[in-house]
Amino acid sequence: MVELPFDNPGTRSTASRDSVSVLLPLPLAGAYDYLVPDDLDLAPGDIVMAPLGKREVMGVVWGPASGEVASAKLRPVAARIDSAPMRDELRRLVDWVAGYTLSPPGAVLRMCFPVPEALEPAAGRKAYRLAGPPPERMTGPRSRVLELMADGLARTASEIAELAGVGAGVANGLASAGSFETVQLAAEAPFAEPRGDHPGPTLSEAQDAAAGALVGQVEAGRFAVTLLEGVTGSGKTEVYFEAIAAALEAGRQVLVMLPEIALTAQWLDRFEARFGAAPAAWHSELTRGERRRVWRGIADGRVRVLVGARSALFLPFRALGLIVVDEEHDAAYKQEDGVAYNARDMAVVRARLNDCPAVLATATPALETLANARSGRYCHLHMPSRHGVAELPDVALVDLRKTPPGRQEWLSPPLVAALEETLAAGEQAMLFLNRRGYAPLTLCGACGHRLECPNCSAWLVEHRLIGRLQCHHCGFSGGLPKQCPECEADESFKACGPGIERLAEEAAARFPEARLAMMASDTLRGPKAVAEMVASVERREIDLLIGTQIVAKGHHFPYLTLVGVVDADLGLKGGDLRAGERTYQLISQVAGRAGRAERPGRVILQTWMPEHPVIAALGAGDPGRFIESEMEGRQAAGMPPFSRLVAIIVSAGEGAAAGGVARDLARKAPREAGCQVFGPAPAPLALLRGRHRFRLLLRAGRDVNVQTVTRRWLSRVQVPANVRLQVDIDPYSF
Ligand code: ADP
Ligand code: ZN
Questions:
Q1: Whether residue 281 is found in the same domain as residue 337
Q2: Total domain count, the chain
Q3: Whole-angstrom distance, CA of residue 613 vs CA of residue 627
Q4: Is residue 388 assigned to a domain?
Q5: How far apart are CA 4 and CA 17, in angstroms?
Q6: I want to staple 228 with a disulfide (CB 3.0 to 4.6 A). Which of 17, 53, 249, 361 is the partner?
Q7: Domain check: are 347 and 373 in the same one?
């Protein structure tokens, strides 16, 4: 008989104490009831193997059985896995995220087990190593595996499957055929240990006050959320480093979330200099083996500090004492596919469940975060000036209506003059244009036909360096057609508008002596390439850096004194209500790269609309003015943060099928007080990866439980199998 420490779930349940509900980490799953065999003693959080159809799958004991299926029909749990149970607060996080985002709990649980084999005990894991002759029967997958294993390293079957891109059985087959020997893997490499007792720099008065507040929270070991707002270069990083040191001294673990892990080489160097050892990292570039090692190190507490992308939120920390979300406003924290969640917001939830402080650091808070700080839900620490002698750069607007660039050129005379001065003084400059490739649009000079993606409602972007046209939404790629498909004119296609490749062409022609470099996510592949580029800028091997938004993020270049924003208006086009906020954040961040050390910096914004509130506020060096007017505008329009939004995207291969469901949703829209539905309208990308998309927006008062309303709403609508509904609570674009 089992003794389960469960709460009584209520009188409705007819479950016996001999059954439990088990949550399976599968995309569509909820929890299922299973019998508990007599010889098993199960508690919530225990990891088990349970039968599902003809398979046995891993799952987590979630609670008492629901009692919806009669005991006689239940199948028994197969076994308990000998591993630490899933911690209570992580299980509550899964339920919380699933409930908040209206996702199946199994889909969220899956994010907690990215490398299920990490559950196996580390010592004594079996691996294969090349030993015998090649097998008699050779296949494509087998030869890929043999090629991989030719280096003589030992790997587990699942690592081999992942690295060679083959099924899990191929390695086992090669072992049976005598090509591999089985070996025991040695213990995993230990983690270097960052230490909290190294001295930090002497803090300024403002830093000291902010650090003192955060250290107090860490030492108290209770839930608290703090917005750490400070202009770029104000020394926020040093401030939260003090909080990290305090958490380490208290024997707790720390999670630092960064929006783009690929861009963190400088951050990692600073961390190591401060704490004497590098933190562990969690991001998409890790190999499976590295993931397994880090996952285990987090679970057993050997990893003290982890820097990670948003998925790090679901790791099994053993003693979490602090969460830092750096650049909290960044759109990269919003996941839109699958479980649609904002990692910044879920970090706050995780901190609450773990009863530890969370710090949200930024120079340009999201309006939602600012509203939370103003209402007193979050503490607010503010550092209004740069550290040391560095001053915020001067921002000047260039009115392109008065001083336009020449034909087929993008640099205006005032910006060219500033670049000349800077380069002549031996200083560095940066040109920012948030457009990858050569030109955003390619059209036929004879008939005006535009080259569009066959799968998406988007133009194809010419990437001249690799000689391809690409869709930035679905990855479609093709050559430039010799003939216009519309009017059959020969060689008639013309590039329209600038991307950074084209800008680099103009810059190279104007400044032939300058050493140019381009920085974009497609010209720099992976964290190593980014780190090398950043290092060569630091060594002053580059005079003029031309880049997309990846140059905006976090880098510290002491000799960079001029930033030119080639098209400040770019992000303001289109109807997105967040366009102003996003533009102000992005341009403030790029501008923040200039003049970070002794040499003063300046920023030039090229614009066709200098009187636009965002541009004018940036030009006046007074972003506060923009924030206030934007807050007022949102309040007047009843938009977030003064209301709540839910986006529902209805998509299907057939436009009519998607449209039918979308109209049905509109007809059955919730009538609850304070709720209003807009749409359906074609979604921002009306065609994406071959699927037609419509969007409905539910707007509700802040006191409305939008999850309940939305769940009820969706349950009234029949959705055929070929139509997909995606629910996005708090959509980033609106
Ligand atoms: P932010 O994170 O607000 O952009 P940083 O923490 O990166 O600012 O600080 C900007 C620069 O000032 C960095 O080069 C940093 O090393 C330096 N700095 C900040 N605080 C101090 C300090 N107390 N003593 C010495 N240098 C500091
Ligand atoms: Zn496409």
A1: yes
A2: 6
A3: 10
A4: no
A5: 7
A6: 361
A7: yes
